[in-house]
Every structure is written in structure tokens, then in C-alpha cells.
Amino acid sequence: MPLGPLMADVAGIALTPEDRQRLIHPLVGGVILFSRNYRDPEQLAALCRDIHGLRQPALLISIDHEGGRVQRCREGFTRLPPMAALGRHWDRNPGEALASAEALGYVLASELRAVGVDFSYAPVLDLNFGRSSVIGDRSLHRNPQAVTDLARALIRGMGAAGMANCGKHFPGHGWVAADSHVSIPVDERSLAEMGEDMAPYQALVQDGSLKAVMPAHVTYPAMDGHPAGFSPYWINKLRRELGFTGVIFSDDLSMAGAGVVGGIQQRAQAAWDAGCDVLLVCNQPEAVDELLGAWRVEVPEDKIQRLMGLQPKGEALSREQLKQEARYEEGVAWAERLGQE
Family per UniProt (predicted)? Predict the structure, then answer.
């Protein structure tokens, strides 16, 4: 059974019968994990084995694991600094900052892969304008060149561990003050004024670094009346103008920023029609059930193949093997150093 276009979540630290029933549905293609799904590395490894064992090809297991405020797995994992720490280091010593970013990317990805997680929604490519509390220190820097260079290094480190990546939140979430989890942000700038925001995407798409992109639940009325993830204007710009050929994820369709579109079926259809490949529905199992029961969609082969392209590459090293690796130990040391600054 091919992977479907929905990315759902699960209730707790082990699969329930209801979880299993949802995850074997043909419309589902993967799972997104949260802090509630994590107790310790051994438990998470067992949960991932159960999820992967449900179907062939195996469902993709994803997680928001950026560092700083957004790190779902903490006890038993290296505590990653907020990405702004890399930006501050870049201001002091750009070359050393790039090396540390690559080392952190390797730690991030290799620790997740060691317990069976396939990929993380990272890196954040939003610029830090000092306006957005929800982005804030999740941003690498205010300077688009610094964001581009540091993100490329992080992606290189993730790739060395065999993990794909997902740049977010296209075309830019750093300017708006409102949090799209609880409100509907509006960015009033013109397209010309947003050139800085899109510069990292242009560079990282051009050199083939980005494997996936997540649009923002932000409306840019100077260009289009829909939030970016529901907007053919923005998806076409990403595909046709920037030339992006990877996976486009919707942001969570349960967020308040998606509410302008209607109920869950209207949101899913709007994101799909706009050109998203994979639709996230988080923290609302009843909404997932509604979609599985009522939403009907034909999934083109190219979308299936794009999603399959996010499968991890190569054998994952065990936690014990990682501790014998100089590259891994270097990354752990950088995480500790940057976390103290």
C-alpha cells in the first residue's frame, strides 16, 4: 500500500488500538511525534518499531526537533541550543559557526535516527526581525546570508546522518508578531519588501539542499488573500519560479491560522488544491477520523515518489556506536558550549 498524503499523530507512549486503526488507512503516510510520545530513548525506539511495522513501505516518522524551545525529546538526548546561538557565533567567527552548525545537525539527526525517527521539520529559515515571539530565537539570524549559510551547514550535518530536512516557514514568518497557532497573522508587506525572507529558500533550492518545505499559516494580502499553505500563488512561486521539486508540507491544519478556510475537510482540500503534497493534522484525532471517513482524493504517483524521497538513507548508528564517533562527540561538545552562552 503506497504512502498517503495525511500526517497524523498518536495518543501517547505506545500505540492504542485507535492509533493502529488510523495509521493503516490508505490516506495516511506518516506520523508526527510530540513530547507526550516520549518517555526515554528505549520507549521511543519501541514505539517507532511498532509504527514502522504496521505497513510496507513503512510509514514515515517525523518530529519537530530544532533545539532550544522546540525539542520534543530531552531526557536521554543531547540538549540542543536555540538556533540563534549559532547566529551569535556566526557574528564572532563565521567559519567556526558553520563547522559547529554542521556538527549540531549531525547530532540532531543521528540521535533521532538511532531510535527510529526518520526526519525532523528543521531548519527554520525565518529571519529574526525581533517582532515574532513564536519565531524569536528559533531563527538563525536576521541576516539572510547568515541564515542561508548556517542552514546549509545544518542540512549537511543532517544529511551525513542520512536524514532529510524541511525548511520552514515559506515565504517567511519572522515579520508578523501574531502566533499562527492561536491567531491568524497578516503580513502587509509587498513582494519586493519580502525579498530578504525568500533569499534563503532561493539559494537552498538552487543548490539542491532543501528536501521539503513547509509554508506559513500567514496571509500576505498584497499578493494573495489566502494563507501561504492554501495559496496557489505561493505554491506556484515555490515550484515554478524557485524550481523546488521536493515535498511541500502543509503546516498543522488544526492551528488557528488555518481556520479562515473552514472546517477540516475544507482545509485539507484547500491545501491539496493549492499544491501541498502532505497535510499535517495534529492534536485532533476526531478531525483525522473525519478526514479518513469522508475525504476522497486521488494521489498522483509523483506525490507518492516525492514523499518516499524523505526515507532515511543508510543504516542508522546505535546510541552506543555514536558515542564512539569523534564527529558525534564534537557535536555534543558544541551543543554544550553554545547552550551556555
Answer: Belongs to the glycosyl hydrolase 3 family. NagZ subfamily.
Residue pair 124/66 in contact by the 8 Å Cβ criterion: yes
Catalytic residue, candidates 40, 91, 181, 302: 181
Quick check: pTM over 0.90? yes
267 annotated ligand-binding residue: no
Q: Is the peptide bond before 312 cis (omega within 30 degrees of 0)?
A: no
Q: Is 226 annotated in the active site?
A: no
Whether 50 and 15 have beta carbons less than 8 Å apart is answered as yes
Report whether 173 belongs to an annotated binding site.
no
DSSP secondary structure letter of residue 194:
G
48-57 burial string, b = 16+ CB within 10 Å, else e? bebbbeebee
Give CA torsion, residues 290, 291, 295, 299, to 10 deg: -160
Question: Does 141 qualify as catalytic in the annotation?
Answer: no
Judged against a pLDDT cut of 60, whether residue 39 lies above it is answered with: yes
From 48-57, 298-307, 328-337, the region with the lowest mean pLDDT = 298-307
Dump pLDDT digits (tens) for 172-188.
Answer: 999 998 765 567 789 99
Cis-peptide, bond into residue 169, ω within 30° of zero = yes
